[in-house]
Amino acid sequence: MLCNNQKKVYFCEKIYFPLYMHKKLLVLIILYISITSCWKNDNSVLPKQQVLDYKTLKRTKGLSIDSLYQQTSSQTDDSIKVNDLITIFRLSIKNKPIRNEILDEALQIAKSINYETGIANSLNRQGVNARYQHEYLKSTKLHKKAIEHYEKSWDISSYVKNLNSLGVSYRKMNLEEEALKYYYQALELSENLEDTKSMAMALNGIGNVFINIEKYKDAKKYFKLALTLEKINKNSKGMGYDYSNLGEVYMFEKKYDSSYIYHKKSLKIADKLGYKDNVAIINNTIGIMFQHKGDYAKSLEYLNKALPVLKEFRSKRYLSNALINMGINQIYLKQHDKGENNILKGLAIAESISSKENMILAYKALYDLYAHNNRYKKALSAYEMMTIYKDSMFNSHSENYIAALKVKHEIEKKNQQIQHLKLETTVQKNNIFYQFFAIALLALLGVFFFYYNRLRLKNKNLEIIEMRNSIEKHLGQILKLETEDCEENKVDITHRLEEYGLSPREMEVLKYIAQGMKNQEIADKMFVSLSTVKTHTKNIFEKLDVRNRIEAARKAQGL
After folding, report:
1. N or C: which end of the chain has fewer CB within 10 A?
2. Crossing angle (nearest 10°) for helices 136-150 and 116-132
3. 22 pLDDT exceeds 80?
4. pTM of the full structure
5. Please, what is the Cα angle at 320 between 319 and 321, to 5 degrees?
């Protein structure tokens, strides 16, 4: 028998112990619910295991995209489903047709569950797709949106790929300064991750920018660094890309034997891997190399190999380039009609995708053809169009060259480490003296190249004026040979221009615009200020209902 006091103690222990345990259990349950709810709200905190593996599925024969898609669509909306949908979309790119609706669904689900990594990866893929469709402005916007979500994500590796892709899109738009900025960010992050594959991509991008600004020695150095990394990775595709880039640099340096050797190495790798589109692109580049060398028949042979495949894969930029270069070869081989036809086809494609490089190449070829055949009016028109597009690219190139020097300075500190294959996560800081010395040196270089480019631009303008005078002289000779009957039938367009309400001064300015003259040249010619010419130009645009100088010139010629 227990006494009363003993009963009380026993009773208290019996009741208190379960209550204490229940409280602890309740706290644990609340904690568990809080953690799981956080995972549901933001799946970026901890990634789940992905079910579908891209590399494994890529090697699977008889793969059905539809069956994979149906199987995945029936699953619960979570991060795994988003990742699987993106994987299936990537497989559709390889197996064709490309299933954009799958990527759209992945993005929609990722947004609905606040899966930041899924949103970022979907936007990144959409940006790459836009670039493949030559919609470069749209591509940059999508990649920039992706950056906002990658900053809240754990997937730094994909973030680096997005930065590299953004650099490519800006480079395609000839905005080298912006391209270098994002390539450098990608290089720095990939070094921190010790991701040699992404480092190689960034180095290749920087090398291509240096090609655009005609710094071939620097371009070659970065391509060789990238090639070293790809050899470490045993990445055949990347090695082929580097060999092709080096072949292009040697071509611009007029070292044609070295160029051919590197291109052949690249061609061998692409052929072995079964990349028909890459084989066609390399054949196109080899064709251009033989054209530079002066072997036009051999050049035509390689371009003819490339053309059918480029048409099959709808590679518009390369197809345009191949057609224009075929036309150039045919002109040198005295096949003028075929040459003109191919150049015009290539020009039409270049205009449809706004490829300035190809448009400049086409107008230069047309100018040479028309001038050679004494078709001076067409020659003048082609030359003016070429000059307009060249001028639009020149200023950005001169500014981007200074930006390239800055990036070169930053990357130079890392070159020795990469060359010795000792890839470290941080770069040692220079002492204050060398930092100030480097900044002062860059400032001096910036001033030097600013004045150098101004002088170069002036020389170019003098060449244009001299050439224009030559063409006008020939046109004058042709006019003298015209019959009196033709003179009587000439249409005086002055009264037609007066219908638009143009003043005599505005008609004079319009005449100079149609001749391809710039505002400063017109001001000098008319002995008026630059602001006066700008005012006249603005009034002309309003009265003729045009948006720019090209449209104004065309309208004047059409009248």
Report:
1. N
2. 170
3. no
4. 0.59
5. 90
The continuous run of DSSP H or E covering 375 comes out as none
User: ∠ CA(221), CA(171), CA(107), 5° rounding?
Assistant: 120
Residue 350 to residues 116, 200, 354, 358, 379, Cα–Cα distance (Å): 37, 30, 6, 6, 19
Judge contact between 94 and 58, C-beta under 8 A: yes
| Per-residue CA distances from 286 to 3, 29, 298 (Å) | 106, 69, 9
* Residue 233 CB neighbour total at 10 angstroms: 15
Q: Measured at the alpha carbon of residue 148, what is the angle toward residues 143 and 153, in degrees to the nearest 5?
A: 105
Can you read off the two tokens belonging to residue 301? 């042979």
Q: Taking a C-beta distance cutoff of 8 angstroms, is the pair 42, 114 a contact?
A: yes
Number of other residues whose CB lies within 10 A of the CB of residue 168: 23
For 348, half-sphere exposure in the C-beta direction (CA atoms, 13 angstrom radius) is 6
CATH numeric code, 491-558? 1.10.10.10
pLDDT band at 107 (very low <50, low <70, confident <90, very high): very high
Amino acid at 313: F
CA pair distance 82, 104, nearest whole angstrom = 10
Q: How far apart are CA 395 and CA 403, in angstroms?
A: 13
Judge contact between 401 and 210, C-beta under 8 A: no
**How far is it, in rounded angstroms, from Cα 319 to Cα 288?**
13
List all residues 6 or more positions away from 516 whose beta carbon is below 8 Å from its beta carbon. 383, 384, 387, 388, 464, 468, 553
307 burial via Cβ count (<10 Å: 0-12, 13-18, 19+): buried
Contacts of 165 (CB under 8 A, 6+ apart): 124, 127, 128, 131, 139, 143
Tokens coding 128: 């790459």
Cis peptide before 18 (omega within 30 of 0): no
The amino acid at residue 38 is C
Helix axes 116-132, 100-112, angle to 10 degrees: 150
Q: Tell which wins on pLDDT, 446 or 88.
A: 88
User: Which amino acid appears at position 64 of this protein?
Assistant: S
Count of other CB atoms within 10 angstroms of residue 6? 10
Measured distance CA(298)–CA(293) in Å, rounded: 10
Least confident of 166-175, 241-250, 468-477, 546-555: 468-477
Contact yes or no for 229/199 (Cβ under 8 A): yes
Q: What is the DSSP string of 32-70?
A: HHHHHHHHHH-TTSSPPPPSS-HHHHHT-TT--HHHHHH
- List the alpha helices (DSSP H) in 482-518: 484-489, 494-498, 504-514
Hey, what are 443's tokens? 């400032």
Q: Please report, as a single letter, which amino acid is at residue 122.
A: S
